[in-house]
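User: structure tokens for this one?
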Amino acid sequence: MILRFLRKVPAGMMIVPLLIGAFMNTFFPEALKIGSFTTATFSSAGAATAMGIQLFCLGTTLQLSDMPKVLKRGGILLVSKFLIGAAIGIAVGKIFGFAGICGLTTLAIISAVTNSNGSVYLAFMKTYGDTTDCAAMALLALNDGPLFTLIALGASGLANVPFIALLATVIPIIVGMIIGNIDKEMQEFLSPAGNILIPFVGLTLGAGINLTNVLKGGLQGIALGLITVFIGGIFIVFCDRIVGRRPGYAGWAVATTAGNAVAVPAAVGLIDLTWAPYVAEATTQVAASVVVTAILAPIMTNYWAKKYGSPQFEKV
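Assistant:
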């Protein structure tokens, strides 16, 4: 019953636990601070550990043998997704500063627009695409987390991100990828844990949020979702059609905000403390974008595939 409910809610595996954690932190904060395993598992103290293990497990799904096959198709989607998110976020940051514009933080913009929901993309490609589209999931997994956000912030000078911090962020992914390529059985054993940990990441992140911030940032989060789908999506579809010579349905499929992106502001705040005051607000805005894009991206992908074609529709 609980699992069915979570699956019906857009990004429910992340959003519902996040809201539960935020509710507890807002109204019963002392309950999360009783110590020992309870605090380590259910409070914000466990966020970094949960995220690190999740990145490691996701890394095991990246198979080197898939890379040549999907490099062009997935690479266009990956690079265009990053470029549009970085361009918008950096422009806002340079002009308006860390606080962003109209309450929409720079950190939230870069975190949301540069990260795509890989599981949503894969579901779309199984419906509309072909095997190569599905295989591109391995490459697109690279933007499902804090790496590209940190690269954008560091390269723009908006954040002080030392190389060792970037290295520390990707080491779990790299180690996971090495193990997943060396031993297929280990890959099959570890890869499901990436999804299993999503509720725990959501809960621990929510435990660092006060719901009063959610009420303040709701409209900005919706606006962020619209930016991700329509501004980001249009650019990605343009690149997919012009550079990749593809119909463009895959471009809309990556015009989402990853559930894991909710963890990105916290990861940035841990590395560069100057962003710490914006983490809670950015997290709620990114969480709203996850929901908005999970609703709108399927509509746009279906519309585009029917109008401009896709492998599955061509078979009909």
